[in-house]
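<instruction>
Derive structure tokens from the sequence

<record> Sequence and structure tokens follow
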Amino acid sequence: MNRPLRAVIADDEPLARARLQRLLGQMDAVQVVAQCASARETIGALRSTAADVVFLDIRMPDADGFDVLQALPGARPQIVFVTAYAEHAVHAFDEDAADYLLKPFSADRLHAALERVRNRVRAPELAASAVPPRTDYAARLAVSVGRRTRVIMVEELSWARAQANYVELHVGGRDYLLRGTIAELAERLDPSRFVRVHRSALVRIDAVDSLESGGGGQYLLHLREGAVLRTGRSYRQVVRSAFGLA
């Protein structure tokens, strides 16, 4: 969000409104678009103004801040309650308030509240711009066996290692050669299920029965099928993370 936060101040005390206006004026990227002295004025301002946040007093002459929220059943701005009464905090956060400022508050405390508001306002934009997760990982691998092509489901693959211009696939006690490199195979497989443990080897995570320290920053991976793989030193942190050791 590149534009300033649009703020509404709602407080029946003129001095409180003036102080909050002054403090907000000292903050970066905040624009006060309305000041209100009553619940009725606040409801009108929030219905007619595209505000990002309202700094809302709880006790006002004609109604309280919670009544204001009840009058705004649809989408509403972020709420920062500003009050001298601590006893309403639980109710405030039940209403999904971004923050609860107790008078008198410091400029630093107000700045922290604004950061919470900014994070909430930015969250939908960040989610919309996030790169969607890949869903095109291979479900099967095709290998040549004589004159036939064998289709291997990736959940049957226990581990694989580089062999010159091929990758040796270990599947249910049998070995198959797949043309290509170990890096190319790793790119095709779901990283939540397979992990590269050596420059020349990868393993299906749930095919590993146990890990044993191999010294020098290495591990020995004992697979359920009986094979034992030694990890590379440079893959230590990757292995620890994959198996919940980090």
User: Anything to note?
Assistant: The chain has a mean pLDDT of 91. The helical segments are 14-25, 39-48, 65-70, 89-94, 107-129, 182-188, 236-242.
